[in-house]
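Consider this today:
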Amino acid sequence: MTEDARAVGAPTLEDVAKAAGVSRATVSRVINGVRNVDPVIQAAVRDAVAVTGYTPNRAARSLVTRKADSIALVVSGAGDDPPPVAATAGPAEATGSRVGDGRSAGFDGGVGSFMTDVFADPFFGRVVTGVVNFLRPQGIHPVLMFAETSRARDEVVSYLRQGSADGALVVSTHAEDPLPALITDAGLPAVLYARPARPVRISYVDLAHQDGARLAAEHLLARGCRRIATIAGPLDVPAGQDRLTGFRDTMARHGHPYVPVAGGEFTEESGAAAMELLLAEQPDLDGVFAANDLMAVGACRVLRERGRRVPDDVAVIGFDDSRAAASCRPPLTTVRQPVEDMAAEMSRLLLDRLSRPDRPVTSVIFEPTLILRASA
């Protein structure tokens, strides 16, 4: 741009209208996406925009279109009202970070602790990657929000009501999280990562967790393992329940009606503690399925400390195919959860809902795959 052009100022709608040979109102209609404009005129306006270098003012445009061109990516918990302990949860009731796999966390140390636990979990980074990679090419950028208390949840709902974001992508870190219901009760568009623990009229993406656990059981049996145990995730969330159910059912179908189970919290330390319990119950076990990679890493550590070779003495399989699986010693055989693809699909569902508000809620279930590495 020349000095003279800078003196004149940035190109205006009037400049575009003059270059296109149309009215200012017509230019405004084309820029704001009004559909009933002749295609020839639309092309002329776009050419004029390119020639003049006009850049629409996003804030002014949002006043006309009622669109913010932004999406809220909300990481939500159930702070302020801790849920009752599930009677069936057993050892899996201890608190800990569970964002990545059932999104049921015992975050009770305030927003600082909540955010620290979220960013420490590799699952969240994979969600952000999937969301950003899908939205950015469309000129849409996610606004990260945390909703770990009732006040923060109210702020999220208010933010959406005011039109500051067009909709929400919600990742719940707690089975009893009330935010999905609050958003849907307010009539606001949103999509949830993972099936809600309680029925809510909201679209979601999830994985066929039982099928993933079946893959793990069948692989251990095919290797010749016969004294097999499992480290379960928290049983107060659907993912934890489904992975345990799928594994037990498959083992029963192959003539193994009893499988020793120790509960974990989707953390490495809880996996290590669970492995200690399983070895105490069945010292000669030869196969272990852990309901996520972090717990499998903890299990492998304990097995090494006890002089048990992986996979020669004990085969170990994890779940997720996270970075932890590749860095484990030895690298983990694991069930892959395509988190990035699932996060992208979550974004697509939300944009589809925004373009067609009358679209009914839906669900998209992804299929797991077994990734073979050295541990089993």
Remarks:
- The longest strand covers residues 70-76.
